[in-house]
Amino acid sequence: MNDRAVELLEQYEIEVLRTRKGRGAIICDTHQGCMIFREYSGSQDKIELQNRLLGQIAEAGLVHVEAIVPNREGALFVRDGDGVKYVLKTWQEGRECCIHDREECREAVRILARLHENMLIMPDGQEMPKVFSPGKEYEKRNRELKRVRKYLQQKKQKTWFELSLRGVLDAFLEQALRVTEEWGKYEPVFADQRPGEEEAVSFCHGDYQYHNILQGAGSWFVVNFEKCIRDNPVRDLYLLLRKLLEKGNWSIPLGMDLLETYEKERMITAPGWIDLYYRLAYPEKFWKIVNFYYNSGKAWIPGKNQEKLERVIAQEKEKQRFLDEVFRKV
Questions:
Q1: For residues 123 and 66, is the Cβ–Cβ distance under 8 A?
Q2: What is the tens place of the pLDDT at every residue in 263-321?
Q3: 3-state class of 274 per DSSP?
Q4: Is pTM beyond 0.90 here?
Q5: Helices (H), the chain
Q6: 235: number of Cβ within 10 Å
Q7: Coil, strand, or helix at residue 156?
Q8: Distance (Å, whole) CA 304 – CA 274
Q9: Rounded to whole angstroms, how far apart are CA atoms 123 and 116?
């Protein structure tokens, strides 16, 4: 972020003591506390929704979250001369949640459950965003997996990574298609159970992972709500679980512990358990590897890609064992 962006801070009712770079943004020490100034790529409607959610969570007082700071005119973002948008938010210095500390992982799940209790919004005559459809997302990813399979079939000179990828792609694609087909039988039923126009609708953080859960000044602080989305709350639980379980080799005791911790704060409904199962069952990590490969330059493929692929392949049996054991009742 350049010096011209820093000049935009003059549009705010704050006294900046000093600034420093951090997390792809500018950290500002002010008389009103620590703040962060960064680019914003979303729409006006999205930031207004984000601001409403954050205000609602803060008012409940159960979870410490960032707050968007309006400028002197009350705008939630400002623009530079090139039209680039920037947003100023409160910030708390701290470290990320430690994924190797079981108690901190439990605390991250407790915070998430409390967060979800305060992410229900009444339409109040306002048009709500469309609810996210996992099925449509799976179909889109499946089409990409098929394109990559065709590309690799036609490519004559393959690298070791491409040979490895081609060797397992059919099996993972078959798994993705099966999950999509099975989920397709449930999604219409769940759609019929969605709230009406006068009922509260659920929103999610959208990117709830350890990078966005900070500890500092004696409390936990949740940041980066830019990806908040209208979806089943298990979306956030799924993302956090998948990240932690991939690091923990799909440990059954760890997964059950975290799910029990969440349910002590907030019960997961029967449809929620089914939704969570299929989100975990879809081979998203494999798709991510394929997506990164296909949409990047192929002249040189990083060795890390091979490492990630080998890890996904090696963990597949443990993942299936986890799903069979933990979701037996589902």
A1: no
A2: 999 999 999 999 999 999 999 999 999 999 999 887 778 889 999 999 999 999 999 99
A3: helix
A4: yes
A5: 3-7, 44-60, 102-117, 134-154, 160-192, 234-247, 252-265, 270-281, 284-294, 303-326
A6: 22
A7: coil
A8: 33
A9: 17
